């Protein structure tokens, strides 16, 4: 089974129904679920998503939405090893380093993000949702 790390921005696109990004992210999730692809999400992504969605939705709605979303993905723990690797690395954005090392620690075959430039140093492939779907069709 293929395993993909889903970056926070993709989660927020779909759960926050971001204009110009929602449809692409929805198509990606639909494809992944239909094809039984393992979607890995960092615990950090849940915290960041909660924070951002709380600005536009009621607290109870955010929690309910995240509970439902959690049933679709595998949640990867943010542990000391990932923290150490991220602190000592050259990723410009600390959060991107955490995502990257979470992907490596969980044997993900690719990272799905809208900000590919943030993962230039990645040793595993990085795709945006549209690229991934094009490659799979």
Distance between the termini: 17 Å
Q: List the uncertain runs.
A: none
The CATH homologous superfamily corresponds to 5'-nuclease
Averaged pLDDT:
94
Spatial ordering of strands, largest sheet: 3-2-1-4-5
Helicity level: 40-55%
Summary keywords:
137 residues, alpha/beta, globular, Rossmann fold, 7 helices
Would you mind describing this structure in some detail?
- With 137 residues, the protein is α/β, with parallel strands linked by helices.
- It has a single domain, classed as Rossmann fold (3-Layer(aba) Sandwich), CATH 3.40.50.
- It has seven helices and five strands; from the N terminus they run βααβααβααββα.
- It has helices at 8-15, 22-34, 43-53, 59-70, 80-87, 94-105, 129-136, and strands spanning 3-6, 38-42, 74-76, 110-112, 126-127.
- It is globular, with a radius of gyration of 14 Å.
- The model has no long low-confidence stretch (mean pLDDT 94).
